């Protein structure tokens, strides 16, 4: 990769990470806390994918008109399904369920481990052999996150919200891996569009079922949060992120380290959440562990 391509990759990566960083506070705005609930987490999850899916139809039609449409091959459909499971259903649904019960700053610390989780699952997927240092960082990072959740829960019992966050992180990692594998041939924008369009038979009915009976009863800020996650978190952000990964996955993935910081910062003006010292310390520790872990070698598996 030359210098110009590297700079372009880093710019696209920064745009994607910034858009994704606001996902947590915006999702919290959309679903509301337990004492003042707004939109259903199920509606937020499937509604945002339905909106983005309808926009994706228009985008793919435009690409077809320009002669630039890339149709998924038969062998790629399983990857599309895995990507949809991770980024359309798993990550957003369990994140929304969790953020009904915990602040977005809490979610930012837990999901800070997502880059390392993605790297670990990717290594297992490709039958690679992570080094002992990589495994040590993975264990340390997981221990820090679990320690943070126990501290916030006030005991060994983690609670449903933390379990939701762990599921969100794991499914999100699978979605990132699947999307990254599809990007070189289909193109960054068309990957997420095909995933969204193929998911419409599922997302539209479920979104309709969980739609608020009286939309006017939902606060304006909740609708603002929903519009953001539909347009930017579910659609435009992936345009930038997958394009960045296609240009330079190794360097770009390091940018993801600043995403938890941005999420913490966005939560203050958007939600009025307070950053306590322990949360910031845990976030720094997790991010440092992820940074070191991603520097550790991962060896290719033996040829079969």
Write the layout of secondary structure elements.
Blueprint: H1 3-21, H2 23-31, H3 41-65, H4 77-99, H5 104-111, H6 114-125, E1 129-130, H7 132-153, H8 160-186, H9 188-210, H10 220-255, H11 259-271, H12 277-295, E2 298-299
Helix pairs in contact: 1-10, 1-11, 2-4, 2-5, 2-10, 2-11, 3-4, 3-9, 3-10, 4-8, 4-9, 5-11, 5-12, 6-8, 7-12, 8-9, 8-10, 9-10
Structural class: mainly alpha
Mean pLDDT: 86
The portion of residues forming beta strands comes to under 5%
Main beta sheet: strand number and arrangement?
Answer: 2 strands, antiparallel
What low-confidence regions span 5 or more consecutive residues with pLDDT below 50? none
Helix share bin:
over 70%
Overall 3D shape: globular
Number of domains: 1
Tally of helical segments? 12
Distance, first to last CA? 30 Å
Compressed to H and E, one letter per element, the order equals HHHHHHEHHHHHHE
What is Rg? 19 Å
Strand order of the largest sheet: 1-2
Q: Could you tell me the number of beta strands?
A: 2
Question: Could you list some keywords that capture this structure?
Answer:
304 residues, mainly alpha, two-stranded antiparallel ribbon, 12 helices, 2 strands, 1% strand
Please characterize this protein's 3D structure.
The protein is mainly α and 304 residues long. The protein has one domain. The chain is 78% helix and 1% strand. A two-stranded antiparallel ribbon has the order 1-2. The radius of gyration is 19 Å and the shape is globular. The mean pLDDT is 86. This is DMT family transporter. It is a multi-pass membrane protein. Belongs to the EamA transporter family. It comes from Acidovorax facilis. Its main location: membrane.
């Amino acid at each position: 990769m030359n210098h110009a391509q590297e700079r372009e990759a880093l710019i696209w990566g920064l745009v994607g990470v910034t858009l994704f960083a606001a996902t947590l506070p915006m999702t919290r705005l959309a679903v509301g806390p337990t004492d003042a609930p707004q939109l259903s987490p199920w509606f937020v999850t499937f509604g945002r994918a339905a909106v983005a899916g309808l926009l994706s139809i228009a985008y793919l039609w435009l690409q077809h008109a320009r002669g630039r449409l890339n149709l998924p091959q038969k062998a790629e459909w399983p990857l599309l399904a895995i990507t949809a499971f991770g980024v359309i259903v798993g990550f957003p649904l369990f994140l929304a369920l969790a953020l009904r019960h915990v602040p977005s700053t809490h979610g930012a610390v837990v999901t800070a481990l997502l880059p390392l989780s993605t790297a670990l699952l990717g290594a297992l997927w490709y039958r690679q052999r992570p080094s002992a240092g990589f495994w040590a960082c993975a264990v340390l990072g997981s221990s820090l996150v679990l320690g943070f959740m126990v501290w916030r829960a006030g005991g060994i019992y983690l609670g449903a919200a933390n379990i939701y966050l762990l599921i969100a992180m794991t499914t999100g990692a699978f979605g990132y891996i699947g999307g990254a594998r599809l990007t070189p041939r289909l193109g960054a924008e068309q990957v997420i569009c095909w995933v969204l369009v193929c998911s419409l038979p599922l997302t539209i009915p479920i979104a309709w079922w969980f739609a608020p009976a009286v939309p006017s009863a939902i606060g304006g800020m909740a609708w603002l949060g929903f519009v953001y996650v539909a347009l930017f978190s579910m659609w435009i952000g992936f345009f930038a992120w997958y394009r960045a990964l296609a240009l330079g996955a190794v360097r770009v993935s390091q940018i993801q380290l600043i995403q938890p910081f941005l999420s913490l910062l966005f939560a203050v003006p958007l939600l009025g959440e307070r950053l306590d010292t322990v949360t910031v310390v845990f976030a720094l520790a997790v991010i440092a562990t992820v940074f070191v872990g991603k520097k550790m070698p991962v060896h290719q598996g033996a040829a079969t």
